[in-house]
Amino acid sequence: MKLKHVIESQQFTKESLEELFDVAHIMEKLSTQVKTLTNKIMISLFYEPSTRTRLSFESAMIRLGGSVASTENAQNFSSAAKGETLEDTIRVLSGYGDVIVLRHHEAGAAHRASEVSEIPIINAGDGTGQHPTQSLLDIFTIKKEIGHIDGTKIAMVGDLANGRTVRSLAYLLAKYDDIKMYFVSPPNVKMGDDIKEHLQKHGVDYEENSDLREVAGKVDVIYQTRVQRERFDSIEEYEKAHGIYIIDNEILDILPKSSIVMHPLPRVDEIKYEVDKDPRAAYFRQAHNGLFIRMALLSILLENH
Ligand code: CP
Questions:
Q1: How far is the CA of 203 from the centre of ligand 1 (A)?
Q2: What is the DSSP secondary structure assignment for residue 44, as one 8-state letter?
Q3: Pocket perturbation via mutation, ligand 1, pick of 51, 284, 289 by most ligand atoms within 8 A of CB
Q4: For the chain, give me the number of helices (H) and strands (E)?
Q5: What is the pLDDT of residues 38-74, one digit of tens each?
Q6: Which atom of ligand 1 has the smallest separation from the CA of 124?
Q7: How far is Cα 105 from Cα 279, in angstroms, rounded to an integer?
Q8: Is 3.40.50.720 the CATH number for 132-286?
Q9: Which CATH superfamily includes the segment(s) 9-130+288-303?
Q10: 243-256, pLDDT tens digit by residue?
Q11: Terminal alpha carbon distance of the chain
């Protein structure tokens, strides 16, 4: 697989995904024994908060024998606070490391960074744009848990307008056969028209449905998401969307026994803690898979470079 940057889900093919999964499985088996990046430096540049993405990338790099230079809260603690542009920051950091993992509050920021960078850029979430490495670990998880990706029926639930994870996941799943997506969201945070147009263009079956109880009995995966308070213009708009769709034991009673509940995390109150002990609660296993997928991505991007 040839990868220069990781910017959006559309750049992957089914074949390249299989290759990535094969490497991720090797990483899972060998874990800390693969010291192939000992002379490489990963720069993590995060303008927005993160637990999983930043720390799993950093752990992945360290497990591969590489080193990490990191700026969290870059909006305040990098020279962005003095007015430096993203482009200038990237040009400079290109000379310091071998790969940049970038999380930014503006959609399109990772693409802009890739246009001026001498080294690979990995999009770790760009505003309401995309979060491609999350969607890679998501479909890796679906394959591990369900056994296949073709034929998957999935309900994407919650804040679909602001959720970059569901956008990236929809683009990736659209590459597979016989996928059915149910978009279950409050009216003010529906899935974007650009995604729906993409699905129509590629003949992917989807429907919008406001009744989670009706949908829950038909799907292999419920992909729950947080209503992202920080992305709303007013508290009133947030309140209209918040607290409507909650996964609890009543939803689990409807969900088929072989199905799973996923969530990119962090959760707030949209999955009740009572769900955690059900074997179908896959979200912590999903987060763990992020380590292996990110080890695989770093290896593919940096080995032989
Ligand atoms: N899923 C995810 O992106 O989590 P973080 O915001 O904690 O990185």
A1: 30
A2: E
A3: 51
A4: 12, 9
A5: 999 999 999 999 999 999 999 999 999 999 999 988 9
A6: 3
A7: 35
A8: no
A9: Aspartate/ornithine carbamoyltransferase (3.40.50.1370)
A10: 999 999 999 999 99
A11: 13
